[in-house]
Amino acid sequence: MASRRDRLVVRVVDDVETPALLALVWRSGRSPAVRELLAQCRRAFGESGGPG
Fold it and tell me: Which of 6, 20, 21, 22 has its CA 20 to 30 A from that of 46?
């Protein structure tokens, strides 16, 4: 798979009036992809006390 990292752009949205919630659901078991996704989410949003 080709890297698209050079095409990613960060956008800050600071005028939102309605809060949003992101819920992630996956199968139990060890997965490098899920482990990395959780690590990225923790770095971005902090610990939530959820599973993982």
Answer: 6
**Residues lower than pLDDT 70 in the chain:** 1-5, 48-52
Give pTM, 2 decimals: 0.42
Distance between CA atoms of residues 49 and 47, nearest Å: 6
The token duo for 51 is 């599973």
pLDDT at 12: 82
* Residue 34 buriedness (CB in 10 A; 0-12 / 13-18 / 19+): middle
Full DSSP string of 31-47: -HHHHHHHHHHHHHH--
Q: Are 38 and 26 in contact (CB under 8 A)?
A: no
Helix (H/G/I), strand (E/B), else coil: 5? helix
